[in-house]
């Protein structure tokens, strides 16, 4: 007691420093432990079923197995706990859902209450990060970035980069011709990764020529998806203050963190382009006026509307108070190019891989696709208008994405204002994570033939599935993937040229069914196929 009296300045007391320190340490520990037990028991107190995991980590340790991806874990839990259940991920509280009506309500109908995403603890505060991008930002900053970036992905601008995509298609076809000569089996996933990183290098990083199968960027990007920041992410999710420490370390030593290294490379590419444009202007060099690539498009992006930014605590729909520039800043340009690189490289390569595998294992579907290509794209050059006529190929891609939803881990939203969804009360700060794989395999949505690869199911359009909330390979609602049209354009252009010349076939080296692995996205371990020249048909 003497030590306690001492801290209040009672004159006749003699402070017991060791005793006070022990008391302070004990109190801090109890408060610390109570805080994490309070979070861990959140769903128990709410009466919501679900896997409990362990205090501090919650169920995060279950999402770390590269060979048993998180979507498999969620599907297992959905079978056990039903279409709505609760989990904790470090200090985050998450509701996992596979009810399409619930999903549509969150992603579309109540978007103003769920405009944020579940944030990566290593990203930092999206309101303060100068290089925050479309995936991480929220509220009015997201709306501004979305409006400015959308101009880059318009059909008009996509047509301008078709020549760049076509050059990479031609380069890959040359490599395929060598690789599959003599009936050799090739891993199509590797070829498609080379293809997508080549395109992105040209349109997002200032690359002036093809570096296919010699691209120094590819190992850096691959490492993010294979290992990334697993241990740093795990630790930061439990103890958020560590996120700031890790970010400082990564910025000081970018070579130990691929994402930081890539960001620096993009920064230099943007600086070089700005310098070039300034030199051209000073020398009064006439330029065509057409953008070279996405760096130019982002630098030139300008909205025709006035933007206003609100105070951080304001609701998404409240009165706007501060005027904001209509251009993207330098740092915002770097941020958008970075997230575009990661999203565009991996998901498009994976979609191509899954489509090719399904065509190889369903010869009758492949024949129909080839007949359409022969009919609609008989000219050597494939135009934007040609692609719009490939209806059956479009069904094939959509059905492949139903079978294998790609980056389903990002199909989530954060509740920004307490609300009720389908009778479930959701508090502010709670995350909603969609179990996309379960929904894409739900016979109540797709019918009894749900496990059949059936492109014809899309013949009557996709609204019947999208409106129900049951199909979201690119997300859903206002935050749907901004690069969707570019990804589909790349995929159709390449598949068209391949199917003109070859037929996909399985071999003894083809893994059937595919072995699926991954953390942030879901990838096949390999897609070993043979490409038989069609002149031998």
Provide structural commentary:
The protein is α+β, with helices and mostly antiparallel strands. The protein is 50% helix and 9% strand. It contains 22 helices and 13 strands. The protein has helices at 2-7, 17-40, 42-46, 70-81, 100-109, 139-150, 155-160, 162-179, 188-204, 217-226, 230-238, 241-252, 258-282, 294-300, 330-361, 363-376, 384-388, 391-403, 436-440, 443-446, 463-466, 484-501; strands at 84-89, 92-97, 185-187, 307-309, 322-324, 412-414, 419-421, 424-426, 431-434, 502-505, 516-517, 523-524, 528-533. β11 (516-517) and β12 form a beta hairpin. The radius of gyration is 26 Å and the shape is globular. Residues 1-11, 310-314 and 317-322 have low confidence and may be disordered. It holds the Pfam family p450. GO terms for molecular function: heme binding; iron ion binding; oxidoreductase activity, acting on paired donors, with incorporation or reduction of molecular oxygen; steroid hydroxylase activity. This is Cytochrome P450. InterPro entries: Cyt_P450, Cyt_P450_CS, Cyt_P450_E_grp-I, Cyt_P450_sf, Cytochrome_P450_3A.
């Amino acid at each position: 007691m003497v030590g306690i009296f001492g801290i209040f300045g009672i004159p006749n007391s003699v402070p017991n420093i060791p005793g006070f320190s022990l008391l302070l340490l004990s109190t801090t520990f109890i408060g610390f432990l109570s805080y994490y037990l309070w979070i861990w028991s959140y769903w128990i107190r709410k009466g919501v079923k679900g896997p409990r995991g362990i205090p501090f980590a919650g169920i995060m340790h279950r999402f770390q197995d590269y060979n048993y991806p998180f979507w498999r874990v969620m599907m297992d839990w959905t079978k056990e706990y039903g279409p709505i259940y609760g989990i904790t991920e470090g200090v985050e509280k998450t509701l996992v859902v596979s009810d399409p009506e619930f999903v549509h309500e969150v992603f579309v109908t109540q978007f103003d209450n769920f405009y944020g995403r579940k944030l990566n603890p290593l990203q930092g505060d999206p309101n303060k990060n100068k290089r925050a991008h479309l995936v991480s930002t929220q509220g009015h900053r997201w709306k501004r970035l979305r409006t400015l970036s959308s101009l880059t992905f318009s059909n008009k601008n996509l047509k301008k980069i078709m020549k760049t995509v076509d050059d990479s298609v031609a380069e890959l076809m040359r490599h395929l011709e060598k690789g599959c000569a003599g009936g050799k089996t090739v891993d199509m996933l590797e070829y498609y990764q080379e293809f997508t990183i080549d395109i992105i290098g040209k349109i997002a990083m200032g690359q002036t020529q093809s570096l296919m199968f010699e691209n120094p960027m590819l190992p850096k990007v691959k490492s993010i998806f294979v290992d990334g920041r697993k241990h740093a992410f795990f630790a930061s999710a439990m103890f958020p203050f560590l996120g700031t420490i890790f970010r400082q370390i990564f910025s000081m030593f970018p070579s130990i963190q691929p994402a930081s290294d890539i960001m620096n490379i993009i920064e230099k590419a943007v600086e070089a382009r700005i310098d070039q444009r300034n030199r051209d202007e000073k020398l009064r060099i006439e330029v065509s006026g057409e953008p070279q690539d996405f760096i130019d498009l982002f630098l030139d992006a300008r909205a025709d509307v006035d933007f206003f930014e609100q105070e951080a605590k304001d609701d998404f729909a409240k009165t706007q108070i501060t005027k904001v520039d209509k251009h993207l800043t330098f740092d915002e340009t770097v941020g958008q190019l970075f997230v575009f690189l990661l999203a565009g490289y991996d998901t498009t390569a994976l979609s191509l891989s899954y489509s090719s595998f399904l065509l190889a294992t369903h010869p009758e579907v492949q024949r129909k696709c080839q007949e359409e290509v022969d009919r609609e794209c008989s000219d050597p050059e494939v135009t934007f208008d040609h692609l719009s006529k490939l209806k059956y190929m479009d069904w094939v891609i959509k059905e492949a994405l139903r079978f294998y939803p790609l980056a389903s881990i990002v199909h989530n939203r954060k509740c920004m204002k307490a609300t009720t969804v389908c009778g479930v009360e959701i508090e502010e700060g709670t995350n909603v994570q969609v179990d996309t794989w379960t929904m894409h395999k739900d016979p109540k949505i797709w019918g009894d033939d749900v496990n059949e690869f059936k492109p014809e199911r899309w013949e009557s359009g996709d609204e019947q599935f999208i409106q129900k909330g049951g199909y979201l390979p690119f997300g859903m609602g206002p935050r749907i993937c901004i690069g969707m049209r570019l990804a589909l354009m790349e995929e159709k252009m390449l598949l068209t040229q391949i199917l003109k010349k070859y037929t996909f076939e399985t071999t003894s080296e083809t893994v059937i069914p595919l072995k699926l692995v991954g953390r942030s996205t879901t990838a096949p371990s390999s897609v070993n196929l043979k490409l038989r020249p069609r002149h031998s048909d």
